[in-house]
Amino acid sequence: MAKLWLAIVLVITYLSLYPFDFFPVPFDDRFFDTLRDSLRYGVGLDDSIGNFLCFVPFGLVGVLSLRGQDRLWSDPWRGVVFVCAAGACFAMLLQLIQIYLPSRHESFYDAAYNSLGVACGAIIGFVLRRRLDGIADPAERPTLVPLFLLGCWLAFRLVPFVPSFDLASIRHSLSPLLDIPQVVLPLIFNDIVGWLVTAYLMRALLPNGVVGYRLPLLIVAVFALEVLIVPNFLSASNVIGAVIALGLWALLSRRENPAGILAALIIAMLVFRGLAPFDFRAQPQSFSWLPFQGILYGNMYLGVLVLCNKVFFYGSLVFVLWQTRMGKVSATLLAAAVLAAIEVAQLFGRYHSPEISDPLLIVAAAVTMAMLQNWEKTTHTTGHTTPAAGRSQG
Q1: Nearest Cα to 223, choosing from 210, 207, 206, 235?
Q2: How far is it, in rounded angstroms, from Cα 188 to Cα 183?
Q3: For the segment 91-118, what is each residue's pLDDT rounded down to a tens digit?
Q4: Are 249 and 199 a contacting pair, CB within 8 Å?
Q5: Cα–Cα separations (whole angstroms), residue 344 to 74, 356, 359, 361
Q6: Nearest to 228 by CA among 307, 160, 179, 176
């Protein structure tokens, strides 16, 4: 888990300091004028949410990585305080370094939102630690890989987690469903597969493996929260996708392990989403070798949302392939090859931008999940190495 924490630090550093075009700034009055100016200008809502979300994994993984390390960290609250302090210092250091980057805009407000994200992640990690430590029977303890993937799905649906009970805001959130319902096939396909995978992950988490009423209850709860949370909305495509997913899960749940079918559905959805509307050109376009270009040059808030969605589907594809007879390395390579093939096909697409990010992201998701499973075994939090296969009986 410590390696995963280090990887998160490196990714945040890359996203914060790219393109690393450092320019010397004298340590004189101009330096302090720059610091003072950074307090005069606030940041937009999108950037605030993006800065908050980027540091949540730092706090979450940081608290979990301290579990079982040393008697000094046996008290979870001590770990929370340490991680929050380390995260705040790290965020402040990045902002100070950005003073030497002409292409970046330093802001102590960014550091404040980063610190809030660390604190939120640390609290989630604290709750999870207490949950893991409070259940004596290993079979009853939640496994981290399904929790990690479900967290990405719920974050994609519910960010920024700020509800509004204003009737006008609620009406606005429902307008795509009530005023002019639109059927968007890629979105329907996305939601069908997303809720089917969610059901599979829930079955992996439940001791008896029976999802039952919990799936429709979760869908209704998510829809209700999407209506309340600004600026999210509920569309006809969302509802259609969820209804179809419920019907399909009623059939798939009868199988002992529908991992193979789910893997095929995820691949089909990724291909459809990656190539639609299937309008191709004769000459290939340029390929971007810059990882996470969308977050670096686009809207950070939207970039984080897209990242959560991709990590959920890419990680879920690897996870369900792990539950088949394929080995972990073979499954990861197959999933990465699928994403690489989609990117190659996008070279000739008119409405997509091929880049290296997605193949790298699916490998990163697989490595992250392998680290989580290894951490579970080394800390004796579970006796299962393949939770879905072990809990999907009956």
Answers
A1: 235
A2: 8
A3: 999 988 888 888 777 778 888 999 999 9
A4: yes
A5: 49, 10, 11, 16
A6: 160
- Where in the chain does DSSP place strands (E)? none
Q: Which residue has the tokens 């792990």?
A: 322
Q: Which whole-number Å values give the CA distances from 268 to 238, 249, 331, 334, in the listed order?
A: 19, 17, 16, 14
* Spatial distance between the Cα atoms of 394 and 84, rounded to a whole number of angstroms: 43
18-41: pLDDT as tens digits = 888 888 766 655 566 666 666 666
CB 58 within 8 A of CB 119: no
Q: What are the phi and psi torsion angles at 280 (to 5°)?
A: -110, 155
Query: Domain boundaries in the chain?
Result: 1-134
Q: Residues 90-99: contacts with CB within 8 Å, 24+ apart?
A: 90/9, 90/12, 90/58, 90/114, 91/55, 91/115, 91/118, 94/12, 94/13, 94/16, 94/17, 95/38, 97/16, 97/17, 98/16, 98/17, 99/25, 99/31, 99/34, 99/35
- What's the predicted TM-score (pTM) here? 0.86
